[in-house]
């Protein structure tokens, strides 16, 4: 018979960022739609240091949807993944129904192959699901010709993923509606708004999370009276305050509130029954170190925040980085990887005054911190035009 004609593969690649909440989200009021009991506010981190890359391809030759994560094929049937796929396809069908011209040539019945990978260790306990779902939704939307509000779709994959759809400083508004249509992410300020802000991620050794966030959250909602008080009374006030600190680039206010909110989130975990402990001895050591450092300087120079795991994320201004990194190096002397201890943006060297050493570096714990990642706020998802960057080949396989 006739030769099969060459069919070009529809293919799109995107990268998306990790975000770190400074006013924490903990607790859902709807588990299926992933609707939170309180609003939250986060800082999007720069993709040069932390990003997920996702390629999606569609072809009439594909027999089923398939997904590869860091090179390994994984089950595409996970409910949250399906929710995102179905929602993007539904929006694409709706858009075609509304439109007279053919918006995208891609046939919606074509199956998709999706490959995704992180440029950071997934085990590092950094919010890989947020970056992952933001990336997935961005890439599928482009593939299927969907535009407009996508944070709602990303939220269906992972709550915090809606915040990774935007750069800089991002509020996830709780919303009021039961259908979740108003539970969306909004940018408070772009990453360019506060150019001096820097972030250190202290990746601590040998942890796997004791309690998965999803399960822990539900138990907290069911059992913690403190969580209810936090959501209804404390957070609304703190959000307004945090937005003002960001607008005014007030690090003193921003830093103090960030630490207080992290502490209260972990207090609600302790108030959960049975209690949940995401912080460990090392996390507490880092908290004490930060407070000693600030006390020594007589102002808030560094501010820690911890998510559902023991890794510390520490905010500071650029002029504090070299000194604080040296304090961390002295407090947690690297076991082996002295040269690899600091990764990411360059860090200058600092000589610590004796009185600072005496006041701040009390009892060193060798090898406790695996490495420090130096980064800063960055933009939302980015499309990659260079075909050599695709994670799928012309055959639609990794």
Describe the protein.
The protein is α+β, with helices and mostly antiparallel strands. The protein has two domains: 10-191 and 382-389, Ribosomal Protein S5, domain 2, CATH 3.30.230.10; 197-375, GHMP kinase, C-terminal domain (Alpha-Beta Plaits, 2-Layer Sandwich), CATH 3.30.70.890. The chain is 34% helix and 22% strand. It is built from nine helices and 17 strands. The protein has helices at residues 79-98, 128-144, 151-157, 213-223, 225-247, 251-271, 281-297, 321-331, 354-360; strands at residues 10-17, 19-23, 28-30, 35-36, 40-44, 51-59, 66-69, 72-74, 111-118, 169-172, 185-189, 197-204, 302-305, 312-317, 342-344, 369-375, 382-383. The strands form four sheets. A six-stranded mixed beta sheet has the order 8-7-9-6-1-17, covered by helices on one side. Strand 13 and strand 14 (312-317) form a beta hairpin. Helix 1 (79-98) packs antiparallel against helix 3 and helix 2 (128-144) packs across helix 3. The relative contact order is 0.18. The model has no long low-confidence stretch (mean pLDDT 93).
């Amino acid at each position: 018979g006739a030769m099969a004609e060459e069919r070009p593969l529809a293919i799109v690649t995107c990268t998306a960022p990790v975000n770190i909440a400074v006013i924490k989200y903990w607790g859902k009021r709807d588990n299926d739609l992933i609707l939170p009991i309180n609003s939250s506010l986060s800082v999007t981190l720069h993709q040069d240091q932390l990003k997920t890359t996702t390629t999606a391809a569609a072809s009439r030759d594909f027999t089923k949807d398939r997904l590869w994560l860091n090179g390994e094929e994984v089950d595409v049937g996970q409910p949250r993944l399906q929710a995102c796929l179905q929602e993007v396809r539904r929006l694409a069908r709706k858009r075609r129904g509304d439109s007279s011209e053919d918006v995208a040539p891609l046939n919606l019945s074509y199956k998709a192959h999706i490959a995704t990978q992180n440029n950071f260790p997934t085990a590092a306990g950094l919010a890989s699901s947020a970056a992952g779902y933001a990336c997935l939704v961005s890439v599928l939307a482009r593939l299927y010709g969907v535009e407009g509000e996508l944070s709602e779709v990303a939220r269906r994959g992972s709550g915090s993923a809606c915040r990774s759809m935007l750069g800089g400083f991002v509020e996830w508004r709780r919303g009021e509606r039961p259908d979740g249509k108003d539970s969306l992410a909004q940018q408070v300020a772009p990453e360019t708004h506060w150019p001096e802000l820097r972030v250190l991620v202290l990746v601590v050794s040998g942890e796997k999370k004791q309690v998965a966030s999803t399960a822990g959250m539900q138990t907290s909602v069911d059992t913690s009276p403190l969580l209810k008080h936090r959501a209804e009374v404390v957070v609304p006030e703190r959000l307004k305050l945090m937005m003002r600190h960001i607008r005014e680039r007030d690090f003193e206010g921003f830093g103090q509130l960030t630490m207080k909110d992290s502490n209260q989130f972990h207090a609600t975990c302790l108030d959960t029954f049975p209690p949940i402990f995401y912080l460990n001895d090392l996390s507490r050591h880092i908290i004490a170190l930060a407070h000693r450092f600030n006390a020594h300087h007589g102002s808030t120079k560094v501010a820690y925040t911890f998510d559902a795991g023991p890794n510390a994320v520490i905010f500071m201004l650029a002029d504090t980085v070299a000194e604080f990194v040296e304090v961390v190096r002295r407090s947690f002397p690297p076991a082996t990887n002295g040269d690899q201890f600091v990764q990411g943006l360059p860090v200058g060297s600092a000589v610590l005054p004796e009185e600072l050493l005496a006041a701040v570096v009390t009892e060193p714990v060798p090898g406790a911190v695996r490495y420090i990642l130096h980064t800063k706020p960055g933009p939302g998802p980015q499309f990659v035009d260079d075909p050599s960057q695709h994670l799928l080949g012309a055959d639609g396989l990794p």
